[in-house]
Amino acid sequence: MKKISWLFLLVVTIGCSQQKKPILGETEFQKEQNAMFKDASKSPLKDKDRENFESLDFFEYDSTFLVKAELKRTPDTEFFNMKTTTDRVSKERIYGILTFEINDKIYNLNVYQGEENMQTEGFEDYLFLPFLDATNGESTYGGGRYIDLRIPEGDSMEIDFNSAYNPYCVYNEKYSCPIVPRVNYLPIKIEAGVKNYKKD
């Protein structure tokens, strides 16, 4: 009887371990993204796409794209209607201009602050960095990618392009995603972060 019970336990244990696969990813960001995409309560994926989901497609981590940027605040800018992929508009203002170097060349990007986030608990210091680059339409989504930032205490901040992610509307058209302003185009290939999404 004990032998049968032990065998049953072994079968159940093996079955459970096969069902619960480890979260894939080489960095903490990659693991967090994959865990979120697997979670039915958080994932932007449609149910049918999430069933067989294992991992997003990422570029290999590259420290070249972890940069220190100088932040020039623009306190007098007014809120404007940033267009989205739907009829909705997102009330944003240019919080400041970020200046940084990649491979000895200097680049600038506008970083934005959303009116709604300023009034949402936990997001009061949230900054939105949407950008376009020379990989769009090839290895990355044609509409550009996003990076989440927080307001720094001083006049410098770290930008990690390895944490660049796709707008949710890439995975599901029900989402309304801000369209990246053309002014935030980088004329280089940012081969870091999440690649374009390809369904299995």
Overview of this structure, please?
By secondary structure, the chain is α+β, with helices and mostly antiparallel strands. 18% of the residues lie in helices and 28% in strands. The chain is built from 4 helices and 8 strands; from the N terminus they run H-H-H-E-E-E-E-H-E-E-E-E.
Characteristic terms for this protein:
200 residues, three-stranded mixed sheet, five-stranded antiparallel sheet, alpha+beta
Short description:
The chain has 200 residues and is of the alpha+beta class. Helix content is 18%, strand content 28%.
Overall morphology: globular
The helix fraction, in percent, is 10-25%
The percentage of residues in β strands lies in: 25-35%
Strand tally is: 8
* Unreliable spans: 1-18
Query: Averaging pLDDT over every residue, what do you get?
Result: 90
SSE sequence, one letter per element: HHHEEEEHEEEE
Round the Cα radius of gyration to an integer and report it: 21 Å
- Class per helix and strand makeup: alpha+beta
Tell me about the largest β-sheet.
5 strands, antiparallel
Terminal CA distance: 46 Å
Number of helices: 4
List the helices and strands and how they pair.
Layout: H1 2-19, H2 28-38, H3 47-50, E1 66-73, E2 80-83, E3 89-102, E4 105-114, H4 115-118, E5 126-133, E6 145-150, E7 156-160, E8 185-186
Parallel strand pairs: 5-8
Antiparallel strand pairs: 1-3, 1-7, 2-3, 3-4, 5-6
